[in-house]
Design brief:
Number of strands: 0
Strand content: under 5%
Order of helices and strands: HHHHH
Number of domains: 1
Radius of gyration: 14 Å
Number of helices: 5
Largest sheet: none
Length: 94
Amino acid sequence: MLENCVTLDVLLAATDTLHRFMTIWTSLRNTGTIAQCLYATHQRWKVRGIQRELLKSLVEFDREKALEEAARMQVSQDIASMAQVRRHCFFVLK
């Protein structure tokens, strides 16, 4: 499903659907697979500047640490980078 998202609206609808049915994915023990798909999607979309929603979903679905350590570290770095950019933009706008 995530691989076929060609617009931001479709991507947001897909992640919203994943969130809405989180209890079902958890009970089926599919959160690891979803986390890996979200990570792959994040890698494709971050070059377009679309990160926040994907990272939020990714962290939520990777609670059971399904991603490899290198991928988890990359996600942490992307989150820190986004926070730093936000902080910089806040000070520039002030």
